[in-house]
Structures are given as C-alpha cells and as structure tokens.
Amino acid sequence: MDSEPQSGDRQSSCSAGRCGRRPWMVWLGLVAVVVVYAWLDHRSNTVVPAAFTWVEDLDTGLAQAERTNRHVLVKFYATWCPPCRILDREVFTRQDVAESLANWVPVSIDVDKQGAVAARYEISRIPVILALGADGQVLARAHGAVSPEEFIQFVRAHESKGTTGTKPAN
C-alpha cells in the first residue's frame, strides 16, 4: 500500500525551523573545508630557508667540488612539486642534515629552469637526489621524498665512494 506523504508528515520533519538551517549548515561546512584547505596549501607553498646554502648551478658546484675534493649532492626539484616542498620544509631545514653535508657541495636544480641539466642526468620524475663525484659521474640516486634520517643515511653511505684521496696542498 503506497501512500503519499501527508502535509502533516512534512511539517513534522521540518519542525522548529530545522529545514531552513540544514542548507546553511552544509554551506558553512563547505566554506570551512575550503578555508582549511587554502591554509594548508598556503603553508605548503611557503618557502622555508635551508639550514645550509645551495649552489644553483651544476658547473659551479662541480668546480667547487673539484677544488675542495668533495662530492656533489644534487637535488632536482620543481616549485610546483609537493614532495619537493616536503623535502625543503622537513629535511633541508634541519641542522643534523646540514652537518651531514659538511663534505659535500649541495646543488639545487629546478628542472623547469634547467631542463638541459635534468636531461643530462635522465631525470624523468622528481624529486630526485643524486650523489655525484667531482667529475659529474653518478655515484647514487634516490627518488621521492625521504625522511631526514633516510637522507642522512644516503649521504653517509655514499660519502666515501669514488674519492681519490686527499689532494696535496698547493
């Protein structure tokens, strides 16, 4: 037996003016979600200074590494890349990470601005971290966002690879 809702039934479900508030509450909830999302997105786009200075040109970094008998650590990134921003915010701001790079020349390459360098090292996704010898040869490669502890392990594991010994002082 099908029955149509009675006018009294509709009235009871909207008693005390609750029907009029429900759409307003939904809109308020949506606005709150948008505001929180915008705040989080703004926070993730905020540039956070690293605990050390990046060289932004690979040739300069390689020359510096050759002069000082160090390796080169290259970070390939893009400004629009969320995992890259996570690395910048959660890894490269830490003092223990800066200390782990004492024997390295850190180089930062924006793949959108330096596509030829990215192509040279066959970078097809980001972020990528390369450990290079002073001659530019790849010693190791790490893909994606890593934790500070994983980053420090990566650096330490590849620190002695490809070294030629201490250069004599001139």
CATH superfamily of the largest domain: Glutaredoxin
For the termini, the CA-CA separation is: 102 Å
Could you list the spans in which at least 5 consecutive residues all have pLDDT below 50?
Answer: 163-170
How is the main sheet built?
4 strands, mixed
**Number of structural units classed as domains:** 2
3D shape: elongated
**Number of beta strands:** 4
What CATH architecture of the largest domain do you see?
3-Layer(aba) Sandwich
The multimeric state of the shown protein is: single chain
Layout of secondary structure:
Layout: H1 7-13, H2 18-45, H3 58-68, E1 71-77, H4 82-90, H5 95-100, E2 104-110, H6 115-120, E3 128-132, E4 138-143, H7 148-158
Parallel strand pairs: 1-2
Antiparallel strand pairs: 1-3, 3-4
Structural description of this entry:
By secondary structure, this protein is an alpha+beta fold. The protein has 2 domains: 9-45; 58-158, Glutaredoxin (3-Layer(aba) Sandwich), CATH 3.40.30.10. 46% of the residues lie in helices and 15% in strands. The chain has 7 helices and 4 strands; from the N terminus they run H-H-H-E-H-H-E-H-E-E-H. The protein has helices spanning 7-13, 18-45, 58-68, 82-90, 95-100, 115-120, 148-158, and strands at residues 71-77, 104-110, 128-132, 138-143. A 4-stranded mixed sheet has the order 2-1-3-4. The protein starts with 6 loop residues before the first helix and ends in a 12-residue tail after the last helix.
